[in-house]
Amino acid sequence: MYSVNVPDKRFLKNRLSLRSSYKPKLSESAMQSREQIISNLRADTYTLRNNPCPTCNSSCGEVLVGEIDRYGIPVTTVLCRECGLLRTDPIMNSNAYEDFYKNYYRSLYNGSELATEDFFSDQVMRGNRLHTFLSSQIPLKDKIILEVGVGAGGILSALCQSGAIGIGCDFGESYLDYARTKGLEVRVGDLTTFADNSADVIVYSHVLEHISDLKKEFIEISRVLKSDGYLLVNVPGVYSIHRDYAGDFLQYLQNAHLFHFTKRSLRRLMNQNGFKELYANEKVVGLYVPEKVRLPSPTIPSSSFRTVLAYLSVCSAMRPLLMIPHVAYRRIILLRRKRHAER
């Protein structure tokens, strides 16, 4: 049983509290998954454990900023006063997450346990943006690109368009089967299934925020990545909530996301695990390389928790205005999908 954490509740907004009247709009299958997840949590079928801050000792305490996520599932989100990292605490234990990802994740998030052409196309669109960035930084021809959490393979397919050799891994077998229909080399599992020094580039696109044991993950990254290799990471950026989520912090929060990074908090995590930042922005897209000499802890930058709180407060106040361009953007995306389907 985890020890009870008592964060500072002064900054909790009513819309993000367990008392909120918020009701998510979900498909029937997604709603069924949501209800079963909540039932498992209430019955302790899904056991919780502490999730201490991975980049500091959290000696300054924490600020409570959320008690539910965008699906209305109970999720406790706290902000570390010492390093400014947002995270879920407590989290489910490994057995609970294994059951969640096997039985409920895809239907809750995508509305289907099977990969679709629309899902693949969305991945390709994101992959094209990552390819434009990555190819501007390093030559990709004949490079071995390994994507962790490859899904249906759309991102990996786009990253290989300049002559790179792609391989991916994931635990969703139906999605991997779809990737294979696209001619991609993929396997069930994680980095532990790969040999030492076997990848020139390792890619985590909207995956790193899902991983509960980051220390263990970085040990595997360092083992599989070549000494002159590159680590490409794309995670939902906290400071992009105003643009990507119309200022709605609740829609940003997802029960499967255990950590929420800014450019600086991700840099701190990278530095502590032996990686140096070459480039990063607040989306967050970052490129990192193995650091031969690690920086001493006192010089590792951190985020200001006050700055994060101020940003979230401004987003909350401006949400009605921020919704206008967000709705227009969604309509443009739907129009693009329709045109793509008609081709």
In short:
This protein is of the alpha/beta class and 343 residues long. It has 11 helices and 13 strands. The chain has helices spanning 28-42, 94-103, 105-110, 117-137, 154-159, 173-181, 214-224, 241-244, 249-252, 263-272, 305-342, and strands spanning 48-49, 62-68, 74-80, 86-88, 91-92, 144-148, 165-170, 185-188, 199-205, 225-234, 259-260, 275-280, 285-290.
Features:
7-stranded mixed β-sheet; 343 residues; Rossmann fold; globular; 39% helix; alpha/beta
Describe this structure in words.
There is one protein chain. With 343 residues, this protein is an alpha/beta fold. The chain has a domain at 117-297: 3-Layer(aba) Sandwich (Rossmann fold). The protein contains eleven helices and 13 strands. The strands form three sheets. A seven-stranded mixed sheet has the order 8-7-6-9-10-13-12, sandwiched between helices. Strands 2-3-4-11 form a four-stranded antiparallel sheet, with no helix packed on it. It has a two-stranded antiparallel sheet with strand order 1-5. The longest helix has 38 residues, at 305-342. The protein is globular, with a radius of gyration of 20 Å. It starts with 27 loop residues before the first helix and ends with a helix. The model has no long low-confidence stretch (mean pLDDT 91).
